[in-house]
Amino acid sequence: MTPPLRPRRFLIETWGCQMNELDSQRLAGQLMRQGLLPTRDAGEADLLLLNSCSVREKAEHKVYSRLGEYRLLKRERPGMRIGLCGCVAQQEGERALARVPELDFVLGPARVGELAALLPRLAVGERVVAVGFPDQRHYDIDAVGRLDAYKGMVTVIEGCDKRCTFCIVPSTRGAERCRPLADVVAEVEHLLAYGFVEIELLGQTVNHWREPGGDADFADLLDAVAPLPGLRRLRFVTSYPRDFTNRMIERLRIHANLSDYLHLPVQSGCDRTLRRMGRGYTVAEYRDLVARIRAARPSAALSTDFIVGFPGETEAEFDETLALIEAVRFSAVYAFCFSPRPGTAAGRLADQVPARLAQQRLQRLMDLQNRIQGEINASLVGTETEVLVTGPGKEPGQVVGRTSCHRIVHFPAPGSAEVPAPALGSLVRVRVTRALPHSLLGEPAAAAPVGLDRRGDSRQPRLPVVA
Fold first, then answer.
1. Is 145-377 a CATH 1.10.8.470 domain?
2. Which residues lie below 8 Å from residue 56, measured CB to CB, with a gap of 6+?
């Protein structure tokens, strides 16, 4: 008797930001539509995709190192196909095919929607490079493998025109390109119809969205999306400080379902460094923006990015960064030592800071932030907050979720006929009982409800769902 054919399988390894995560979901959705099934075991995958990020140090080296591991797998299974996607794919292009003979194709971020069309070419042994930024791009909202049961990510603006001296994104993701408001609203309505309760609007400079050929700005987009039935939480990342207008800030006051969490990269607390970075604002302007945001939404929790050891940064200028952290009291900080990226102006600046000194400064910065973060978390003990359940906790009988301000909360899950355990996507009222350095512990403040979608039906979506 002939054994049944094994279904073809794929694995996507994703590095980088939320934009890369959504690109991977788009890749997965196309593959599932072609009959391929996801796997977590690279050894059984018929198609291996590395969706890469080029923002951090030695990105190319790390990508080629990983592809070297993929090559060994392909030698054991010659029928396997390997693809390099994402920002390093755009950056390397034909060079990647020349350097890695076992690599079958290279797919840039602007060409993600073309994966399904490439598969027949791969099947006949063609090696393909699809990079660049075509005017017409295929974006099928029905072909996205949504891997969350509760949150849907929606791109509203691609690329970036800012040209910060340290950043490679304009080269790897291209010029700014906004999606029409009607398309964004249609995709959000599509996700809400599936039962998603949280929507995250994405863009390298998300608050610089403008209606193509029209007058609407990001404030108008929020006005169009926030009132949609069934939308419990609306988040957006990443905001550019210079692009925040008073109209946008006022939406934080108007729309209650806008998340309390805002990611607002500042990069440095020194005006001279900000000028060398090409950021286009001063520390005073940034602090004024923070004050206006907190006046509109007192519960706002701000996170930010810092680059430590930018060329020419003196000890006194670094101290200005520490002073900004003390003054603003961020809820979270993402900080990295400067690393020159290919083709950027900052790599050619004089007075490069020694790596060891930059690492010492980074440690001092994170020590300060950990203290502040601990103090903020401790101030929340005894308060009640609404937590969106995102999965099981580390301990048996626990679940984990996030507050509106994006803090992680672990709490025991009730489990009885009278009070069922909360489903993914449920919103549960939780009392904070203990503060940890990077998360909170709590207990249900009342009976934990099963999450309801906009039709009022109990929901427990299966994973993954193509939506």
1. no
2. 336, 339
Spatial strand order of the sheet with 47-52 comes to 37-38, 9-14, 47-52, 81-86, 105-107, 128-130
Q: At what angle do helices 246-254 and 283-296 cross, to 10 degrees?
A: 30
Spatial distance between the Cα atoms of 87 and 52, rounded to a whole number of angstroms: 6
Q: Where are the domains of the chain?
A: 9-130, 145-377, 384-452+459-466
CA distance 299 to 293: 10
The predicted pLDDT at position 449 comes to 42
DSSP state of 196: -
Q: Residue 177: is its pLDDT beyond 90? A: yes
3-state secondary structure at position 21: helix
pLDDT in tens, 386-411: 999 998 888 888 999 999 999 999 99
Q: Average pLDDT, stretch 429-444?
A: 94
Q: How far apart are the first and last CA of the chain?
A: 38
* Beta pairing, strands 157-158 & 177-178: antiparallel
In this structure, what are the phi and psi dihedrals at residue 192, rounded to the nearest 5 degrees? -65, -35
In the CATH hierarchy, which top-level class contains the domain 384-452+459-466? mainly beta
